[in-house]
Specification:
Blueprint: H1 17-20, H2 33-53, E1 61-67, E2 73-79, H3 81-98
Length: about 100
């Protein structure tokens, strides 16, 4: 799988070549990928609502539902570097103020 670039929603796939790998698109018979994806989708939707609520645009950063090779849900964060830097700064500020994730 090569890098996906260009306009539209294709930027969501940028940078995942090394995460997914060459065999990432293969499905194993008998593995319930749908259940894992549904779980990941619920978590990604919640995170996306929060990101929108604090002012991030979905074109800048968003959570994307996926599954791993065993069918477990995976949520990946995809976005532009400047949005990732801003999000990292916000999370660092929260960690400094409260000692971490509740």
């Amino acid at each position: 799988m090569g890098k996906v670039t260009g306009s539209g929603e294709s930027w969501l796939n940028d940078g995942f070549d090394d995460v997914v790998g060459d065999g990432g698109a293969l499905w194993v018979p008998g593995v319930d990928y749908v259940a894992g994806w549904r779980s990941a989708r619920e978590a990604a939707d919640r995170l996306n609502r929060v990101l929108l609520g604090v002012g991030f645009e979905s074109s800048a950063v968003r959570a994307v539902a996926s599954t791993d090779g065993d069918g477990r849900g995976v949520v990946r964060l995809a976005g532009r570097p400047e949005a990732a830097e801003l999000l990292a700064g916000l999370l660092e500020g929260l960690a400094d103020g409260s000692g971490g994730v509740a």
